[in-house]
From TrEMBL:
MF (Gene Ontology): hydrolase activity
UniProt name for this protein: Calcineurin-like phosphoesterase domain-containing protein
Taxonomy of the source species: Eukaryota, Viridiplantae, Streptophyta, Embryophyta, Tracheophyta
Pfam families: Metallophos
Domain Calcineurin-like phosphoesterase: 14-230
Record-linked NCBIfam families: TIGR04168 family protein
Length: 323
């Protein structure tokens, strides 16, 4: 039987914005069944990742391009043929993060959660977006044995198709798939220069999803990712952060950066003292195997902890335009 409601809480694109005490207080207020991280914890911030690994919540994470920022550059200067074995100094930071996360790191893996009737499918870690593996190619081939986009797509789809019957499937990637638009404001659209445009999604993830959908044997509800920040470059406004496909799969980008805003509480209300922070989370509610609500939620943490406000991205009660 389905639980009446399950809560997913993706926590995306931290970029060093993490405080053990304050973020744990916020999580206790939200009471999630599962916490998801889509990477970019920092530029190989081993200490932060280790801290998150100790978080006393059920969690799954995938490392992003910033999480191999320096190591990928070292690999890109080396021969990464099958016989190549990099020296330890090139790998310590990436290895340390993977060792801290252990089974919580979901890249090219699947996490089956029987009590929630849910399977989390890990896409390609360390993604920079676009048609190549980019600087992380050497890391991906050495750590995961993946040799190219087709191989990657096959690995991801195989994981999904082997999920337990009756489980809802949620794909977790650092970046989203191709096929969701090519304008700068689109959910995976290029935005980093005045002339830039184009689809910067991951083609292997799109191919994997296509194969799973064609098989028709599993209930794919969500694809969750980050990487492409909500605020567009050059002051061009904000990115579309959620789309619903013609296949009714919901694609959500929760890379709200910065995700922490600090204020002097005493200036806002005389009864408050000291510094308060607003901390952003994207909260996803599932009910009976279907997405019920998705919201960008800001939690106020100070003398007390409470949900300050939320921006609803999706509600099953409101008609949604498909792409």
């Amino acid at each position: 039987m389905w639980s009446s409601t399950s809560f997913l809480l993706p926590w995306l694109s931290l970029h060093d914005q993490w405080d053990d005490f304050e973020d744990t207080r916020a999580l206790r207020e939200l009471k999630p069944d599962l916490v998801l991280f889509t990477g970019d914890f920092g530029d190989e911030n081993v200490e932060l990742v280790h801290s998150i690994s100790k978080l006393n919540f059920l969690k799954a994470a995938i490392l992003g391009n910033h999480d191999c920022w320096y190591t990928a550059e070292l690999f890109s200067r080396q021969d990464v043929s099958p016989g190549y074995s990099p020296c330890k100094s090139e790998c310590n930071a990436v290895d340390a993060q993977l060792q801290s996360l252990q089974d919580s790191h979901i890249g090219y893996k699947r996490m089956d959660i029987s009590e929630l009737k849910l399977s989390i499918i890990g896409a390609r870690p360390f993604s920079t977006g676009g048609n190549t593996f980019g600087p992380a190619y050497g890391i991906i081939t050495q750590r995961f044995g993946i040799q190219g986009m087709n191989h990657s797509a096959g690995k991801i789809s195989s994981l999904a198709l082997q999920a337990p019957t009756g489980h809802v499937l949620v794909f977790l990637g650092h970046n989203g798939p191709t096929g969701l638009g090519s304008k700068p404001m689109d959910i995976c659209g290029k935005d980093w220069s005045a002339k830039s445009s184009g689809d910067h999604g991951d083609p292997d993830l799109e191919a994997a999803l296509k194969k799973v959908k064609e098989r028709g044997s599993h209930n794919v509800q969500l694809v969750i990712f980050g990487h492409m920040h909500k605020t567009l470059s050059l002051g061009r406004g904000e990115r579309t952060m959620l789309v619903r496909g013609q296949d009714n799969i919901i694609y959500v980008n929760a890379a709200v950066v910065p995700r922490v805003i600090a204020i002097d509480a005493s200036k806002c209300h005389p009864n408050n003292t000291g510094l308060q922070t607003f901390r952003n989370f994207t909260v996803i509610d599932l009910n009976n195997g279907q997405v019920e609500k998705i919201s960008e939620t800001w939690v106020r943490v100070g003398d007390n902890v409470s949900v300050d406000h939320e921006h609803i991205l999706y509600s099953s009660l409101t008609p949604q335009q498909s792409v």
